[in-house]
Amino acid sequence: MVALGDELPLGLTAAELARPNVLLIISDDQAWSDYGFMGHPCIRTPALDRLAAESLLFERGYSPVPLCRPALASILTGLYPHQHGVTGNDPALPDRRVNPAAARRDPRYAHYNQAIVQQFCRHPNLVRDLVNRGYLAFQTGKWWEGDPMKTAGFTHAMTRGEIKGSRHGDLGLDIGRQGLEPIDQFLDQAGLRPWLIWYAPMLPHAPHTPPRELLQKYLPVAPSPPVAHYWANVEWFDRTCGDLLERLDRRGLRTNTIVVFTTDNGWIQDPARTNQFAPRSKRTLYEGGIRTPIMISWRGHLPPHRDTQHLASNLDLWPTLAALLKTPLPPGLPGINLTDPRAVARRRRLFGEQYTHDIADVHAPIRSLEQRFVIEDWWKLIVPEPHAAPGGQPQLYNLKTDPWEHADLASRQPRRVARLSQALDAWWTPPRQTDRAAAGSE
Fold it and tell me: Please, how many CA atoms are within 13 Å of residue 213, restricted to the half-sphere of its CB?
C-alpha cells in the first residue's frame, strides 16, 4: 500500500506539469565491478547494461562513506557525513553487539536513534526541495530516518518509520523482492504531475535469498555457494530494475524521466560465509567499499557517454539534477554538475570518511571517525585517525596500475603522502582527541 500525505500542492501551470520526472535507483551493497557493463565475467545484468549504454556513465564514481545510512543521507542532502551528522547506522548501546534485537527494544535506542534522525532533519534535502516546487515524491525500499513524509518531505511512502519495526525501512523493504505494484499505484495516482521515485530496494543486500532458478544458474560457476547466492542476488536486483524501466516505457514516461543510478556502498562477498562481506569492502575506504558506477540517463536530452577517467561522487547527484531541472541549490554544497564537462575536467580530488558502525555519541557524531581518504587523479591516500588506530600509518595506492589496492606505496613516496595529507586537512581537519576531551567536558 502507498501512504499519502494529507495535502498535495495544487495549481501547477502547464509548464510545471511538463517538467521531467526523476527516478533514483540505488543499489544496496554491491561492488563496483559486479555488473556486465563493468566487465564482470560471470554476473549478468542485462537491464543495467542497457541503461549504461544510454547514460552519461562515470566508471570512477564514489560514495563519500562506506555504510548505508550515512551514504543515503549524503545522497539526499548533498553533504558529507561530518556535515549532516548521520555518521553510522545505529546508536551505540553497551549490549548491542551481544544481542542487537534486545538492544533495539531498549527505550534508550529509540531516544538515541531519534537524535540521529534530528541530525538529518536539520538540513535541506533533494526530495523536500522538489516537493516544494510541485513534485510528488514516493519513497520505496531502504529508509532509516523515521517517517519519510515527515523527515524528508515525501508525499507518498511505503516505510512507516516505526522504531519497533525494521531499522532498514519496515514495509518499504517489500519493494523489489515482493514486486513493484506500489509503484504502479503511485503512478496511477500521480497522473500528469511531475514526480520523483526513490527506488532503493534492499538488493543485492543480504539476506541473499534469490529466486531458485537464478541460484541454480550461478552455483556451477561461482567459487563457493555463498558467492553464488550473492551473484544471484545481483541479477535479481537487475531484473527488478528492468521491470521498473519497462513499466515506465509502457506508460510512455521514459523520454520525460531522468534516471539516476548509483550504490550506497560496496561489497565483496566472503567466499566462506553466506550474507557476510569480506575484508576491504563494505565499511572500509578501499575501492571495494566506496567505488560505484554512477549513471544519469535522459533520453533525447543527455547524449550517452562513458567516462573512464574523471572522478564523480554521490554528492554530485543533487547538483546535477538541479542543473537538469533548472532549480537553484542551497548554498555551500560541495558537489558539481556532472553534465558540465568543464566542471568535471576541473575537479582534481575527491574526499570521504569512514566511521564506526555504531555512533558512540549521537550528539557529537564525528567522534566516531576512524579514517579519511583523498583521491587525486589516480592516486589514493587513506589516513587513519590516531585515536582509532594508534600508530596506524597512511596508505597510498596507484589506482591506475593497482585498482584492487594490493601494493601500498606510502613508504616509497613520502613526499606525495605529505602533499595529499595536507590536501586532506585543507578539506576538513576533524577535532583531535584533545579537542574531543574538552568538548566532552562541557
Answer: 2
